Amino acid sequence: MNSVKMSFEKNLQTERTLKIQAVNKLSEIMNRRETMRAGHRHDDTLDMRRKEKENRKLQLELRSEKQKLNSTIIKYQREINDMQAVLSDESQVRMELQMALDSKDSDIEQLRCQLTSLSIHSMDSTSISSSNDMDDSGYPDTRLEGWLSLPMKNTKRFGWDRRYVVVSSKKILFYNSDMDREQSNPYMILDIDKLFHVRPVTQTDVYRADTKEIPRIFQILYANEGESKREQEFAVEPPALAGEHSSYVKHKGHEFIPTLYHLPSSCEACTRPLWNVFKPPPALECRRCHTKCHKDHLDRNEEAIAPCRVNYDISTAKDLLLLAGSQEEQQRWVSRLIRRIPRKHPGPASVAQAPEPPSHSSPRLSPGASPGNSPSLSPHRGAIKVQPKNLGGGGGG
């Protein structure tokens, strides 16, 4: 029994020793793992702090670059605005110089006209008689000037502003006063090459005007690019009375505007009266070719209405109303300006390809070929050619 007991105690002691060793080994392993884990955690913390520091540094650099970019954008935007302002000023100065140059060209043309007239008057009686014929076909026809009135810019009240208008062989110049005329300072210039049409107005065009003024009013229709104006004139456009009608009816190329005629007017589709002082019948007028007819012709879709004769694009055209001093003066302005209208409608291609008319060896032009028929016609050349001979003959006498 004792031996068995001692054997068991020995085995128990052995097992206890092994257990203690296993526990110690396990503790050592656990401590080693904790140490490694703490080391990894410390490394992760350092790495995270390093990355946060780099992130803050990059954010500061990004903010700095954004500020530099914004300051650069503001700087260049300011420079662009300054350059645009300078460009606008230079363009305005250039336009004013060009307008002054056109006015000087008109003055030179007038002086050449007077010089040629003096040369012609120094000839014999035959030359003098030919100079008298030039009233219709020579230099005097190339120049027209006088006082006209334009609609006031104030749209609340219809009225007229007097302007001095000079028509040379290539330009129509508008001056605010005699002083501006003497200083060659026009406020508006129209290019004759860009004219579409010149005609007396109807009641539809100037229904706000006094009925007594209608026979003295005429209209100039021209392309947008044919107009040059000073900067102060751009702010407010003159009231385009015909453009106040916002709606129109399209038919056969016409753009009919509903209207009523209280003054004598005739229908171009029938013989019925188109007007009445108190109760005029509903009527239509084309704002392009100004054909007039009863409204019921269009309502019944009758074939009596002829197609529109005007083929220009009204969106690219502008019109100008002018008031003359009398009906005779209005007719004179209209007849003289109609001669200047290009045979082809104004446009870059037609103007660039317009053939140069043959030069004349005599200062007298053919009565059938008015210089107004072609804007590029320059009758001064023919007159200047005979000028040295006339002056030489005068010097010899």
What does this 3D model show about the protein?
There is one protein chain. By secondary structure, the chain is α+β, with helices and mostly antiparallel strands. It folds into two domains: 72 residues, no CATH class; 208 residues, Pleckstrin-homology domain (PH domain)/Phosphotyrosine-binding domain (PTB) (PH-domain like), CATH 2.30.29.30. The protein has eight helices and twelve strands. It has a five-stranded antiparallel beta sheet with strand order 1-2-3-4-7. The chain has a four-stranded antiparallel beta sheet with strand order 8-9-10-11. Helix 1 runs parallel beside helix 8. The radius of gyration is 45 Å and the shape is elongated. GO terms for molecular function: ATP binding; metal ion binding; Rho-dependent protein serine/threonine kinase activity; small GTPase binding. Its EC number is 2.7.11.1. It comes from Oncorhynchus mykiss (Rainbow trout). It is found in: Cytoplasm, Cytoskeleton.
Structure in a nutshell:
This protein is of the alpha+beta class. The protein has eight helices and twelve strands.
Set down the secondary structure blueprint.
Elements: H1 2-121, H2 125-137, H3 139-142, E1 144-151, E2 160-167, E3 171-175, H4 178-182, E4 188-191, E5 195-200, E6 217-223, E7 227-229, E8 249-251, E9 254-259, E10 283-286, E11 292-294, H5 295-299, E12 317-323, H6 327-338, H7 348-352, H8 380-396
Antiparallel strand pairs: 1-2, 2-3, 3-4, 4-7, 5-6, 6-12, 8-9, 9-10, 10-11
